[in-house]
Specification:
Length: 299
C-alpha cells in the first residue's frame, strides 16, 4: 500500500489520558502542562467502562465513568476551557487489560444500551447549559479496547461512531497490537478504520504496548502504520505507567518523533497517563518534552 500523495503534516496536537487510575490520584486537571503554543491540547478522561454480566462476563453496553466526576466536572471543564482556548476534553470508552474486553452479550441490545448510556454521560453528567447544539462540554469520544473477545466489533463500534458523529463528536480509536492469536485486536481496529475512516478523526496507536527497541524500528513501524491509518491521523503514544516500562525507551521514542517531525510525518503525540506522570522524579517531563518537540520550542 502506498503512502497518500502530498501527505505532509505539521505537529499540531497533544493528548493526555487522565483519571484512569485510583492511585497515584489526581484531583484536578494539571493545567500547568498545557503548552499555549500547541494548536490543540486534549485531556482524555478514562475510562467509561461497560457493565458486565457477573455470570457470563459479557458486556451489556451500559457505560459509566470510572473517574471521579466531581474532580473532573462539567463546571471545571468549562472554567478550564475559558482560560485555555486550545483545550478540548474527550471521554474514552473501553479499558486496559482483560478486565474490560469487548464482548457483547447481545449485539443489538449492546448498541442500544451504549447509545443511551453515552448520551447520559454526555448530556447529563457533562451537560452544557449554554444552549449549544451538542448539549455537552465534552468534545469527543475515544474507543480504547485492548481485548476483543467476540465478533461484532466492527459492526457494533461502527454504529456507535456514526451515532457520535451525528451528535457532533470528534472520534478517535486507540489500536494496539497483540502477540496472542486469540486476541486479533489490531486486525479488528484496521477493519473498523477501513469501514469508518471518514468518521475517525485521530488514531492513538499504543506503541508502548509492544517491544520497540531501536529508533529505526520505531520510525519504520510508525511509517508502516501510517500507510494504512493515514499520516494525517496517526498519533504516536508513549506510556509513563510503570507496568509498560521496558517496551520502548524515552530515548527511542523522542528520537523517532524528532525524525518524523523533521519529515513532516507526525501530526501529534499522546501520553498514557497523567496519574503516573505526576509522580515521576521530574513530574510531567514526558508531556512537556513532547509538546516542545511538536512546537519546536523550549518552553
Amino acid at each position: 500500500m502506498s503512502v497518500e500523495p502530498a501527505a505532509f503534516v505539521q505537529g499540531e496536537i497533544f493528548r493526555e489520558y487522565i483519571g484512569a487510575k485510583p492511585s497515584p490520584k489526581l484531583r484536578k486537571f494539571p493545567v500547568e502542562i498545557i503548552n499555549p503554543k500547541i494548536s490543540e491540547f486534549h485531556f482524555i478522561l478514562a475510562f467509561a467502562t461497560d457493565d458486565y454480566d457477573p455470570t457470563t462476563g459479557r458486556g451489556k453496553g451500559n457505560f459509566r465513568p470510572s473517574w471521579n466526576v466531581s474532580d473532573f466536572s462539567a463546571v471545571k471543564i468549562k472554567e478550564m476551557k475559558a482560560q485555555y482556548r486550545n483545550v478540548k476534553v474527550v471521554i474514552s470508552i473501553g479499558g486496559r487489560g482483560t478486565k474490560y474486553p469487548f464482548n457483547p452479550e447481545d449485539k443489538l441490545q449492546w448498541i442500544h444500551n451504549a447509545k443511551k448510556s453515552l448520551k447520559e454521560i454526555l448530556e447529563v453528567d457533562y451537560k452544557d447549559d449554554c444552549g449549544c447544539v451538542t448539549k455537552t462540554v465534552i468534545d469527543g469520544v475515544d474507543i480504547n479496547y485492548e481485548h476483543i473477545e467476540s465478533d461484532g466489533f466492527v459492526e457494533c463500534i461502527g454504529e456507535i461512531i456514526e451515532y457520535l458523529k451525528r451528535k457532533g463528536m470528534m472520534v478517535s480509536i486507540a489500536p494496539s497490537d497483540s502477540t496472542d492469536p486469540a486476541n486479533p485486536v489490531l486486525t479488528n481496529y484496521k477493519n473498523l478504520y477501513k469501514d469508518n475512516k471518514e468518521h475517525i478523526d485521530w488514531v492513538d496507536y499504543q506503541f508502548y504496548d509492544q517491544t520497540v527497541s531501536t529508533t529505526h524500528a520505531f520510525v519504520n513501524l510508525y511509517r508502516s502504520l501510517s500507510d494504512f491509518f493515514s499520516v494525517k491521523k496517526l498519533l504516536a503514544g508513549y506510556s509513563t505507567d510503570p507496568e509498560d516500562a521496558g517496551k520502548i525507551s524515552q530515548k527511542v521514542f523522542f528520537e523517532g518523533c524528532e525524525i518524523l517531525l523533521r519529515s513532516d510525518s507526525l501530526p501529534g503525540i499522546f501520553v498514557w497517563d497523567a496519574n503516573d506522570s505526576k509522580v515521576l522524579e521530574e513530574p510531567y517531563y514526558v508531556e512537556i518534552k513532547a509538546q516542545q518537540l511538536l512546537t519546536k520550542s523550549e518552553d
